[in-house]
Amino acid sequence: MGYQAEAGLQTDPVAKTVATYHRQTLSSHGVLSAAGSAEMLQQPAAAGKSDKTGTSKSSRSRKPAPKATRHSVNTAHARRSGGKAKAPAPSVIPQGGGRSASPSPSPSSSGSGTSNLKSAVQKDIASGNYELAVAQYLVENGYSKAGAAGVVGCIAGESAGNPESVGSGGGGLIGWTPLSSAAPNPNIITGNPAKDMMTQLADLLYYDSSEIGQSLVNQLNAISNPVSAADFFSANFEKPAVTYSDVRPSTAQQIFSELGG
């Protein structure tokens, strides 16, 4: 049977209740269109699953990402390259604030007795030319050429210039008697001529200047004639039983010539 609502009549309470129920249901899932239809306008889906409160988990506030630093960049680069990040090299400051000092070189050891003799003397000793070696050694130690030649003129009569010569109770270049009287080294004859020459040359200097006296050495060096110097050395230094018996004038003159006198 048809039914037409009369003007001024109130809305059916049952219909109103049903309409209100549908409106609330629709509003909880969306909104009604402007035309009042029951078509639901869907809201954009939020990233992530909605929780019970209707708030998307992805929409929750998060802590800000840490700011990239040089260390994190280096680490990331190392991970990409398959190695380890290099730690910055530590600064090295030399003690004292300056360049490290090079180590000082170690002092050289003192030379042997041979190094105290000049090459010419060593050469003459090695060749057995002992008389010239004595003269050159004396000149190197302050003797005049005539004085040195005069000393050798007497040595020629004492030992013939042989450092290994042994006489009655004495021996060596100038015939030290006894042998133990040689100083400062009394070990003057060992069977090694080259070694004994070096020992006796030092002992000869000591004998002349210390046992006889430097003043007489000075007088010897003041003499310009090698034979006269040999006579002076015989009388004041050698003092043989027979004065001048040990002088060899030809040797004194020859050595003087070889020294360039």
Brief overview:
This protein is an all-alpha fold and 261 residues long.
Main traits of this protein?
single chain; disordered N terminus; globular; mainly alpha; 261 residues; Lysozyme
- Terminal residue distance: 174 Å
The fold-level CATH name of the domain at 117-258 is Lysozyme
The tally of beta strands, per DSSP, is 0
Q: Architecture of the domain at 117-258, according to CATH?
A: Orthogonal Bundle
Number of helical segments? Answer: 8
Structural class: mainly alpha
On the 0 to 100 scale, the average pLDDT is: 73
Describe the structure.
This protein has 261 residues and is mainly alpha-helical. It has a domain at 117-258: Orthogonal Bundle (Lysozyme), CATH 1.10.530.10. It has helices at residues 13-27, 70-81, 119-127, 130-140, 145-158, 193-221, 226-238, 249-258. 26% of the residues are buried.
Helix/strand layout:
Elements: H1 13-27, H2 70-81, H3 119-127, H4 130-140, H5 145-158, H6 193-221, H7 226-238, H8 249-258
Helix pairs in contact: 3-4, 4-5, 5-7, 5-8, 6-7
